[in-house]
Design brief:
Among the domains are: 137 residues, no CATH class; 117 residues, Alpha Horseshoe (Serine Threonine Protein Phosphatase 5, Tetratricopeptide repeat), CATH 1.25.40.10. Helix 5 packs antiparallel against helix 6. By secondary structure, it is mostly helical. The protein has 26 helices and no strands. The N and C termini lie far apart (84 Å).
Amino acid sequence: MKPLVGGIEGFLLTELTQRERRILAAAAAGLVVAVVLAGLAGWRWHLADEQRQIADAQRARAEAALSAAAKTADTLVFDLAQDLRNRTGMPLNLVRLILERVQNLQRQLAQAGERTPELISLQAAALDELAALYLDQGDPAAALAISERARDILQGLAEAQPNFRWLKRDTAIAWNKIGDAKLLMSDARGALSAYNAALALTTPLAEGSETDFRRDLAVCLSKVGDALAFLGQRDEALANYRRSITILERLTAADASKELWQSDLAFTQTRIGMLLATAGMRDAALEAYSKAAAIREALADKDPQASNRKRDVFNSLMNLGGLLVTMARRADALAAFRKALGLITALAATDPGNLQWQRDSALVAGQIGAVLAGDGAHAEALDQFRRSLAISEKLVAANPDNVMWLRDVAVVQNQIGDVLAILGRGGEALAPYRASLAIVEHLVAGNPQATDWQRDLAIGLLKVADAIVATDREEARSDYERSRTIRERLATSDPDNLTAQRDLSTIYDRIGNVLLLDTRHEEALAIFRKGLAIRERIVSLDPRNMSAKRDVGFSHDRIATALQALGRIDEARSQFRIRLAVIEDYTATDPSNALWQIDLVLCLNGLAQIGDQPRGHYERILVILRRLEREGKLTPDQASWIGAAERLRASLPN
C-alpha cells in the first residue's frame, strides 16, 4: 500500500543530520504547496457555486488542483514515511509526528471538496503506515485499531469500485496488518482468520502475470503459515511456507535485482528453519537459517543506512545462535550472539526512542547470559540477565499492556533465579521465581488459549516448587501437580512437538523426587521410567540434540537412585554405568562445557558411593574439579567438593 506523509514543524529540522534536513525541508515545502493547493481548491469550488455560468470550467480547475494536492501528499508519503522509517538514526517519534500531520493535511484536502476515491485511499495509506509504526514499537492494540479503520475504508471503496484490483490488494494488506497485530497479542485464531481473508482476496489477483500480485500471494501464504505454526499445526504451516518459497524462488530467479523479493525469501526461509528446529531436524534448520542469513547480509551490505536490513541480520544471528546452542556448538553460538549484540547496540544508540531495538538488546543479553551460565561463568551470566531485566522493565513501564514485553520480564526473572540457585543462594532465587510466576498467571488469565503462556505457567510453577520443596513439600507438590496437568495437556494436543514432550519428562522427574522423599519408592521408579521412555524417543528423532542426550542420562540417574533406595544395588550400579556412558558421549562433543563436566563428576561420585571402583572414580573427580577451578568455572559450593573428594579418597583402604 502506498504510504502518506505530511507536514513537519521547522524546529524538528534542527535535530536531524544535514542530509535529513534537506529531505525534510523539501517535504515541508511540499506540504505547504499541498495545503495551498487544497485552499485553492476550496476557493475554486466556492466560486463555482456563486458563479454558475462558469461552473464547469472552475470545477475542472478545482479538481485539477485537488488532484495535484493529493499527488503531492502521496509522493511525500513514499519519500518520507516509508524511507525515513528505515534510515539509521531517524527517530521513530519523528516519523510518527509526520504521519499524524498527514492526517491533518488529509482533512484539509477533504474540506476543500468532495471526498474523492483518491483521497480516501490516501487516508487508508496513512493509516497503514501508522499501523506498521505501532507494530514496530510494540503497541499491537493501537496497530489493530488503526488497521481495522483502514480495512473498513478500503472495503467500502472496493465495493463502490469493484473493477479496481488495487483496492482489493490494499484491502488484503490491511487484513494482514490486522493479523500481525492479533498474532502479537497471542490471538492466533483471530490472526489466522484475518490472514485467510487477505489470502482470499489475493489469490485471484495472482492468477495473472503481474509479479507484484504473485509476491503478495507469497507473503499471504507465509503469514497464514505463521498463524498455523503458532497454533501447533506445523505440517500445515510448513506446506504454506513451501508454497511461498516456490513463488519467491521463481520471482527472484527471473529478476535477482528485486531486493524486496530477496528479503521475502529470507524471511520465509527463516520460518521454515524455525519449524524444522522445533521438529528436531537441526541440520535442515541450520541450512535454512544459513541461507536466510546470507541473503540478509548481502542486502545490508548494499544499503548500509537501511536500519531494517541491519535488524534482519540481527534476527538471523539470533536464530543461528539459538540453534547452535542445541547442537552443542556453544562457542559458535556465543560468537553469533555477541555479534548480534554489537549490531543492535549500535542501532539502538542512533535512536533511543526505538523501543523494538531496546527489546532486541534485552533479548540478546539474555541469550548471552544463558550460554555463559552453561559454561560456568555464573557471575558474568548474572550481570547479563540483570542488564536484560533492567531494559525489559523499562519497556514495560512505558507500555504496561504489552504482553510480549511482560513475558520477557517473566523469562529473565526465571533465568536470574536459576543462576542464584546454582550459586547456592536459593533464598534469593525464590523472589524472582515468584515475580515471574505472578506475571505469567496474569497473562494466562487474560488469554487462556495461548499455549506459549500455558507452557510458561508450567515452567513457573516448577521453578517455585523447586525453590520451596525442601521447606514446604506440600505446597511444592501442589505446584508440581498443576504443572504436570498443563504439560500433559500440551503434550497430548501436540504429540510431535518435542519441546512439549521434553517438558513432560521434566515434571515426571520432579514428581518422582517428591515420591522418593515420601518413601514411595516403587511409584517413584515407575514415573522415572515413564520420563526415560519419552526422552529416548526424543533422542531417536533428534540424535544430534545433546540436551536430549543429557536428559536421558539424568533419567538413568533417577532410576538408579530409586533402585538404590529399594536395596536393588546391582540394578542401580547398572543404571549409573549406563548414565556414565551417555555423559561421556555428549561431553566428548564439547569438553569445555562446565555444566556437562559437573554431570560427569556427579555420576562418578554416585558409582563410587555404591562401591564401584571408588578410588579410580575419586581420582578422576579431582582431576576434573581442579581443572574447572583453575578455569574459574566452579561455584563456591562446587569448589568445596575438592576437599570432600580428597577426604573420601583418603578414607579408602589401601
